[in-house]
Amino acid sequence: MQRSGERDRLTVVACGLGHYTASAFIRRERGDGVVGATELERTGALEALGLEPEMRIEALVEGSAGEFGGDVGDTGEPLGCPGDVVDVQLGFHVATVGENVTPKLANSSYCSGMAPQILVINGPNLNLLGTREPEVYGTDTLDDIVAELTAIAAERGAKLRHVQSNHEGALIDALHDAREWADGVIFNPGAYTHTSIALRDAVISSELPVVETHLSNVHAREEFRHRSMLSGVCLGVVLGFGKHSYAAALDALLRHLD
After folding, report:
1. CA 230 vs CA 121, 175, 202: distances in Å
2. CA distance 88 to 108
3. What is the DSSP letter of 95?
């Protein structure tokens, strides 16, 4: 409940495609908590705040920061309450803005100034790295690879979570869970790459950029490994560079998100 005379703190987050704003939303804070976030339309509330549709992001930050104020109406509550804009931030998204996108957009780390959250998923038999066919997969253990990748991510201002499972359903669950918190996924599906329509559907359902990643060059191996069920629905594919495939995938994913 808002006390009489109390004004909420509002943050305008402009989300862009390239150099231009595609949309924006208002995050409302009261006391120590966030009480709501609402997508701003390209007209109406967006223009009332002095934002022009598709204006250059640099112009928004340079010309608008700190100049907003007053009652912006409905920003997450049935009845609009007065508030002052205290910050202007930049974000990025590639999803079509709509009714069902707003909560995810509001929670996105890239649209809230937080460190990007990256999920790394490794599929069946990758827990045996270091001892399994080292002539193909190298001598580094999975723990070694994840530790090195975590350090690289930290240098880039990103945070990693890692999941490894030999079970298809657990990998699907990890992709489903990522919808709620992750900004992108690095995914080595192992042998499921070549067989799993269910994982392909889970990648699509995640609505996240996913980089398919492989230690070995699968196209230089057995013919049955040449076909991927997932490549067509992933942001991109990195393969053949051993443990460095993961670092290359992380770099490409962060560049895509930036």
Report:
1. 14, 13, 10
2. 16
3. S
Rounded to 5°, angle at Cα 16 from 10 and 17: 165
**For residue 234, what are its two tokens?**
């992933």
Sheet holding 20-30, edge to edge: 33-40, 20-30, 8-17, 83-92
Task: Please give the positions annotated as active site.
Answer: 137, 214
* Best CA proximity match to 237, nearest among 258, 216, 257: 216
* Strand 20-30 with 33-40, pairing: antiparallel
Q: How far is CA 180 from CA 5, 19, 103, 213, in A?
A: 35, 27, 10, 22
Structure tokens at 26: 């208002």
User: Listing from the earlier edge strand, what are the strands of the sheet with 210-214?
Assistant: 159-164, 117-122, 184-188, 210-214, 236-239
128: left (phi over 0), alpha (psi -120 to 50) or beta: alpha
pTM value is 0.59
> What percentage of the chain carries pLDDT values higher than 90?
44
Average pLDDT rounded to a whole number, residues 105-117: 57
Cβ atoms of 209 and 119 closer than 8 Å: no
| Mean pLDDT for all residues in the chain | 73
At 8 the three-state DSSP class reads strand
Q: Is 4 buried (19+), middle (13-18) or exposed (0-12) by CB count in 10 A?
A: exposed
Which H, E and C letters describe 21-62, residue by residue? EEEEEEEEEECCEEEEEEEECCCCHHHHCCCCCCCEHHHHHH
Distance, in Å, from the CA atom of 230 to the CA atom of 217, rounded to the nearest integer, reads 16
